[in-house]
Amino acid sequence: MVARFRLLGNVEAQLGGVTVDLGHPKQRAVLAALLMEANHPVSADRLIDHVWGERGPKRGRQTLYNYISRLRAALRAVDDEVRLDRCSGGYLLAVDEHAVDVHEFRSLVAQARRVHDDHQVLELFEQALQLWRSEPLSDLDTPWASALRDALDNERLAAELDYVDAALRCDRHTELLSSLSTRAMQYPLDERISGQLMLALYRSGRQADALECYQGLRRQLAGELGTDPGPAVQRLHRQILTADPSLTVLPAPSALAPVGGVVPRQLPAAVPHLVGRRRELSALTAEVDSGAGSGTVVITSVGGGAGIGKTALAVHWAHRVRDRFPDGQLYVNLRGFDPKKQAMDPAEAVRGFLNALGVTPQHIPLSPDAQVALYRSLMDRKRILVVLDNARDAQQVRPLLPGTAGAVVVVTSRNQMSGLIAMDGAHPISLDVLSEDEARELLVRRIGPRRVAGEPQAVKQIIAQCARLPLALTIVATRASQTGFPLTTLAAELASASRRLDVLTTGDPASEVRAVFSWSYAALTPPAARLFRLLGLHPGPDVSATVAASLAALSPHHVRKLLAELTDASLLIEHASGRYAFHDLLRDYAVEQTNSTDSDQERHAAVHRVLDHYLYSAHSAARILEPARDPHPLPPPQPGVHPEDPADHEQALTWFATERVALLAAVGHAAAAGFDTHTWRLAHVLAAFLDRRGHWQDLAVVGNAAVAAADRVGDLLGRPIAHRIVARAHRRHSSFDDAYFHLRHALDLFTQAGNLIGQADTHIDLARVRVQQGPRFFPEILPLACRAHTLYRSLGHRLGEAQALTAIGWSHDRLGDHAQALTCCQQALPLLEEFDDLEGQTYAWATIASTHHQLSNHFRAVTSYQRALDLCRGFADRYMEADILNRLGDTHQAAHAPDAAHDAWQHALDILTELDHPHAAQIRVKLASLTSGLPEASYPAGGQ
């Protein structure tokens, strides 16, 4: 896959369309500076100046080196061909300049200014301008970035003006009027822009408006600068006054009607404010280019959900390329999803095309087959564009396909047109919602940059509440223009999900969000419609096929067919293999439908099933991650639930990572819907994963929800478990007093309930907190660990005994009895290995390593820490990995191995920075204190 670097907007790197994490803004600024001077050396001083300006940090070079090191790692993940190397002049980023949007923009503009064919000029300028997503380097705020932004904006404006000149030469004045009027208001003193607008107005038959435009320019120049317009604009003014014939552009000879035929021009007016869609527009053009000379008809199918902008895209692109089709353009709305009219019969569409091609009614054959034959005969070898809008299915489209090469067909449909793709060779293009930058640009074009810039927070809320759907955003922009209401008022109206679809109404069913959705919904089979409704009850952002099966109480095989139907109807998207989602407005519509169609009992049962699915699946995965956990058997799930059962540790981690957001949403949904037992049980089975992966804020949220839920129902088991979860979160946030308080409360509750395993587990947790609280609490840890060991042994809980024995070992280590610490951990290891307890083994080996470190046996300490690291990475506890790396670095430093210490600490720092953990500051201090003058250590062979 080819890496792409984007500076014309946020600083981004993408691989196969997936955005790569480039770190924080300062680190991205380093990359931006290197990309702007790709393949040329950039000195460290210049980089520091570009990133920090005059107020650079005290250790600017060291900080820069750290950024360079991280960027190297990130770039290696993007593309092996991209290299960031140290050179004599500083740093050099070796990259294909065509993969960097700013260099590609400049290259395309330079090409456009060299060629003489205006149509080719337009294509090159369009490709260049499509690379712009928003303000360049929009996520960077430094003097260098601001200056570069201004320079690049000037380059863009110059390219846009050159483009307009070429477009006017190609007689595209009508489609330019809207953008030229906006630009003239933005630059009221620019004579070139005013001249372009005057010419476009005149050629559109608006001579008076063109003359008034000139007078407005003259007044502005006189008032602001005390001058008159220049000679070029004055000459254009005189030509307009006298209706100079040279101002009228005649069609090129190739655009004239062919002998004996009619040239149809059926395209509807283009949408004046099409935003974004650069990739899709380029793909449409690329399909035409690649199909030229292939001997076949080029067919492209544009698919996407209601209100996504399929027609706008197709018509906009058709106007852009119409000069490539001298034999004309045909257009028909096939009404595939019209709520009031039946889908158009293909025979009716063929007759319409025959009329457009100049066939009189009396010469149209009676037989539909004969009509299709005549249509294809007339289309033979013609360079003609056919736009089939709003098609229902492939059967409706096929009779309208030309039979020979030369023609290009664009089909738009809410269905995915799989049959057309498979059987007729159509090339699919799928539209998604706009990006946030594109959504903001749509609002800017509709209501003006001043209003958008004046209420940034409201704009952000509107974009989110409209789910970045073009139709919804257009409705809000229209309402803002018509009412003049502050954007904060409109954002507040949209904030209520229950009212959102009411706000997005226009009185015109064709442009009302709810009505447009209903057209697709009405076309579903009853089972698919039921599944769509129930998916509105799912708490998470997306859903797997297995979860959907449990939600609807259907077999996974059956539900996959229904999901395919919903996907084909563009009511769902399969955004990842086997995972489905719809945007928030469609979710609102699904909720409306289930509330009006399904009974309270049906909706309650569906929610119960989906919560059961997540609880039982997470329970199975958690048993794999924590084999020593108290089993706490669950009651049987509801009928129709299909829990997932990961087979091994890797599958369990993958399942949790994939479903994490949905599981968190399920906890909140369960609490809100009165499923209190599900709430604390879900939090319990989630806790280990959230802890190990560093999701400690999430851990605190589900823990607090569990405490409240267990208290509401007075659950004797759930209450202490919930307090242990909260304590776990406090411990990770270094709030040790709070952690100790919750653990003492949990211990009291376990004791009241007579739960010995819970008491033993909590004693070990208390010992860990006391260790982290520091040396003055060390005398308490050994009695706590011993009490846990006694309790486990009384229950015959062999794995618990081994874990407690390890705790006794690290208690002795903290108290200075290193020989006893080694003995305890070495005794525990065989049992921990027997039960495949990776976490327990990691604690044991880390304690053995710590003991060897205290005894200055550095070689054994290093090998033991490495063993602990290998085990830790097996169960993916990020904080524990960082802690072991930190201590490994201490051992390397004690052994006078500064390079090895640096590597270990740097790796620990990367993890802690990723986790946003306060201990990262301690690692930075250690790295800063390292000296490079000490020789690399040579560990004695006898140390083994």
Automatic annotation (TrEMBL):
DNA-binding region: 1-95
SMART domains: BTAD, TPR, Trans_reg_C
UniProt keywords, alphabetically: DNA-binding, Transcription, Transcription regulation, Two-component regulatory system
Pfam families in alphabetical order: BTAD, NB-ARC, TPR_12, TPR_8, Trans_reg_C
Domain of life of the native organism: Bacteria
Domain OmpR/PhoB-type: 1-95
Disordered: annotated segments: 627-647
Family affiliation: Belongs to the AfsR/DnrI/RedD regulatory family.
Protein name as it appears in the record: NB-ARC domain-containing protein
Organism: Streptomyces macrolidinus
Lineage: Bacteria, Bacillati, Actinomycetota, Actinomycetes, Kitasatosporales
